[in-house]
Amino acid sequence: MKIKRQKKAKKTISFYKYNFNFRQPFQILMDGTFCQAALKNKIQIKEQMPKYLMGEVQLCTTNCALKELETLGNELYGAKIILQKFQVRKCAHFKSPVPASECLLSMLEETNPHHYFVATQDRVVTAGLKKIPGVPLLYIILNTIVLDKPCQTSQDYVQAVQLGELVSPAQQQSICSLKEEQGISQRDRERRGKKRKRKQSNPNPLSCLKKKKKGVPTPPLKKTEEGEKTKRSRHRKRKDTTTVPVVTNT
């Protein structure tokens, strides 16, 4: 059973590696419910998690998850001690903590840009994770850590990328790296930073024309009185004075 479970986990991890650009060390974001379940089932998270995921891991949590365990009292004191050993990632609720479920979902945003694995037993969190593409889910069942298969949202996202409808995060990163190599991104930033100077252009020739003076009305033609004949102007043709000499036969 252990070999079969690791094969399934390997297949799922390769899915996230290829389609969502997950790399080692894997970042495992967890809450108090997962630590409480690990404590009850006597699971050593630091030892078993790297073996199960077959790679290096970074165990982390948020300040809101720690504050939630503090408010719940002594019943979850053991889970609080375990969770305090992990790295604390900054969240947007430092001054006013929110429930751990709300905090974890806010850390993932819309596309899980930091490539978090989420380890939780909270149903509210798991329901929210299934709406976000590219989020691997870890939970504890039957005294073992289980990596859930990709949700339908992740599968639909991958299918849309393959059909050319979307661009995957891996493709976006490769495009950005190619732009940096060619210096295109730097040129774009310089263009945005510089203000374009307007070229000195010649004035519009139509605007330079002199205004036309209002036309003076032409005087009306003189009407001839009745019975008076109109004089016609005659052009006399000048006679050609040059005479052609006549040749006589002698």
TrEMBL record:
Basic and acidic residues bias locations: 178-191
Coiled-coil features, chain-numbered ranges: none
Keywords, sorted A to Z: Nucleus, Ribosome biogenesis, rRNA processing
InterPro entries: Fcf1/UTP23, PIN-like_dom_sf, UTP23_sensor
GO annotation, biological process: rRNA processing
Region spans: Disordered: 178-250
Transmembrane stretches, start-end: none
Function: Involved in rRNA-processing and ribosome biogenesis.
Name under which the protein is recorded: rRNA-processing protein UTP23 homolog
Organism annotation: Mola mola
